[in-house]
Design a protein that fits this description.
With 189 residues, the chain is α+β, with helices and mostly antiparallel strands. It contains five helices and nine strands, in the order αααααβββββββββ. The strands form two sheets. It has a seven-stranded antiparallel beta sheet, with no helix packed on it. The protein starts with 6 loop residues before the first helix and ends with a strand.
Length: 189
């Protein structure tokens, strides 16, 4: 991201990057973001437009408010103006959480969580402590019993990002459950 971006636009870009847990650095990153935006908002915005918004392209153009509003919608705001009203120099904005958040601090070792996401995927995981989970059972997903991963946030209706997914015989990877439509969860104590 170039330094010539104004504070509001830079804040919007940073909030989007935080939301998808990815810095926009390569053309593939912008393609990924375009797909994420479409899957969440059903609005198609071009990778080139996103590159212009981020200042990735050196063209001296000002993005349309309608393009910035698409990004604000992606973050859960009604429009770009609403996003901008939350910005102060001391308190950068954060995207509103639309679904209920599971407070992992309240889990005890051995607690189990049933995770569901489309299309008809079900996975039961057991909390191991220290934000680490172990897969107990799974249906129609690449996750297999015995796999372990770390996860710091579980939000109803949002994708679930797994860090350090360890599957037998493979190096740790990142993995996303519920890319389209998010996940639902149920805690079993």
């Amino acid at each position: 991201m170039t330094e010539k971006l104004d504070y509001k636009r830079r804040s919007l870009c940073e909030a989007v990057e935080k939301n998808i847990n990815l810095k926009m650095r390569t053309p593939k990153d912008f393609d990924f973001l375009r797909e994420q935006i479409f899957s969440k908002t059903n609005v198609l915005i071009s990778s080139t437009t996103l590159k212009r918004i981020w200042g990735y392209l050196t063209e001296d153009t000002t993005p349309r408010d309608s393009s910035l509003t698409v990004l604000a919608h992606f973050l859960g705001y009604p429009d770009y103006e609403a996003f901008c009203t939350e910005i102060t120099d001391d308190d950068p904005p954060s995207a509103p959480v639309l679904g209920s958040r599971l407070s992992l601090e309240t889990l005890s070792e051995g607690d189990r969580i049933i995770l569901r996401w489309d299309p008809l995927r079900i996975c039961v995981v057991e909390y191991q402590g220290q934000f680490v989970f172990k897969v107990i059972s799974s249906e129609k997903t690449r996750l297999q019993p015995g796999d372990t991963f770390s996860c710091s946030t579980i939000i109803e209706g949002e994708p679930m990002y797994l860090d350090q997914l360890i599957q037998e015989g493979h190096a740790p990877i990142g993995y996303v459950c519920g890319k389209k439509g998010g996940i639902s969860y149920e805690v079993i104590h």
